[in-house]
């Protein structure tokens, strides 16, 4: 994750024909998702949340803008991260994306993740070998999960700034960033969760 920015620059996106959706409508969409039955919890109450539980956890945070709305800000030069939840089982961040922002391919070490989109659009790609990457696009009011085994990449998929909420269990402490090394060999660089992922590590 990035260090706290020294200088905040409000993001000025190119004109987009579709105005941002009102937050109240996005929250209603998450509330409808949350009306579905909860995923079956692990028998051990201290166990890590599974990916479906994490997806729901991210939706719960997304449906409660009082927790995070005051932290929203955008920079053109980097994604903005703000931690909005932390306990012994889960930690969660608000992430604000500008035009072209891209994590590059990475993993979350042994943590699974749940991601809720609260504004704009994001694209997720799962790294595959011998076949094209598996891609999906998500809009405000949608959520998805990332198993701990996945190697993925997330990009701002729209013309407007995007805002997402990411929850991890066990709490995210380490990540791995992938890049192409000498001779085309795939290399993994171990990172702290406080270091920012950059697309130049491996973008395709
Ligand atoms: Fe990720």
Task: Give a topology summary.
Layout: H1 23-34, H2 51-62, E1 80-86, E2 91-97, E3 106-107, E4 112-119, E5 121-126, E6 134-139, E7 143-146, E8 152-156, E9 162-169, E10 174-180, E11 186-192
Antiparallel strand pairs: 1-2, 2-9, 3-10, 4-7, 4-9, 5-6, 5-8, 10-11
This protein binds fe (ii) ion.
Report on this structure.
There is one protein chain. With 204 residues, this protein is mainly beta. The protein has a single domain, classed as Jelly Rolls, CATH 2.60.120. Helices cover 12% and strands 33% of the residues. The strands form three sheets. A five-stranded antiparallel beta sheet has the order 1-2-9-4-7, with helices on one face. Strands 3-10-11 form a three-stranded antiparallel beta sheet, with no helix packed on it. A three-stranded antiparallel beta sheet has the order 6-5-8, with no helix packed on it. α1 (23-34) runs antiparallel to α2. The protein binds fe (ii) ion (FE2). The site of fe (ii) ion has 7 residues, from β8.
Give the cofactors and ligands: fe (ii) ion
Annotation, overall tally of beta strands: 11
Q: Could you describe the largest sheet, including whether it forms a barrel? A: 5 strands, antiparallel
**In angstroms, what is the radius of gyration?**
17 Å
If you average the pLDDT, what whole number results? 88
**CATH superfamily placement:** Jelly Rolls
* Count of runs of 4 or more consecutive helical residues: 2
> In sequence order, what are the helices and strands, one letter per element?
HHEEEEEEEEEEE
> What share of the residues does DSSP label as strand, in percent?
25-35%
The spatial strand order of the largest sheet comes to 1-2-9-4-7
Binned, the helix content reads: 10-25%
Query: Which CATH class?
Result: Mainly Beta
